[in-house]
Amino acid sequence: MQRLDRTEPAVSDLAKRQAILEGPKSTWAGGLTLFGGAMLVIVGILELLQGWSAIRKDDVFVAAPNYVYALDLTTWGWIHVLIGAAAIIVGAAIVKVRTWGLIAGIVIAAISLVSNFLFVPQSTWWAVVMVALSVALIWAFSEVISENRQLGQLGT
């Protein structure tokens, strides 16, 4: 294996570490880190907006009768605001290449996925979009962690 002589700045420290290997998978992992972190920040902003709308008891949400997970709309709003704030913080940590951020990103995306699944009766299409984004984030962060393990660099 030969080292690449790169003079241009890498997108992140993770991309620099992975640039020691030539091949498309290393590029993917570095790109997924940036993509995942940026997407988690976007998901966080969307969660905040969704939560704020629910707290204000906006007319966009429909009350579902006889729903097992029926919570007050304000409660759902605060749940989404807290998830959104955590997602923004963790997304920023991932973009700044903090190893803990990848694990935390998976956890936050999973929590977002579950909360939006439970929120489907109140806002069907929006919740489905948020579930899809959460699944994409879990995949992206898992792929980066897998690449790091293959490179033997997780935790360094």
TrEMBL record:
<dbReference type="Pfam" id="PF23636">
    <property type="entry name" value="DUF7144"/>
</dbReference>
<feature type="transmembrane region" description="Helical">
    <location>
        <begin position="75"/>
        <end position="95"/>
    </location>
</feature>
<keyword id="KW-0812">Transmembrane</keyword>
<feature type="transmembrane region" description="Helical">
    <location>
        <begin position="102"/>
        <end position="119"/>
    </location>
</feature>
<keyword id="KW-1133">Transmembrane helix</keyword>
<feature type="transmembrane region" description="Helical">
    <location>
        <begin position="32"/>
        <end position="55"/>
    </location>
</feature>
<feature type="domain" description="DUF7144">
    <location>
        <begin position="33"/>
        <end position="141"/>
    </location>
</feature>
<feature type="transmembrane region" description="Helical">
    <location>
        <begin position="125"/>
        <end position="145"/>
    </location>
</feature>
<protein>
    <recommendedName>
        <fullName>DUF7144 domain-containing protein</fullName>
    </recommendedName>
</protein>
<dbReference type="InterPro" id="IPR055568">
    <property type="entry name" value="DUF7144"/>
</dbReference>
<keyword id="KW-0472">Membrane</keyword>
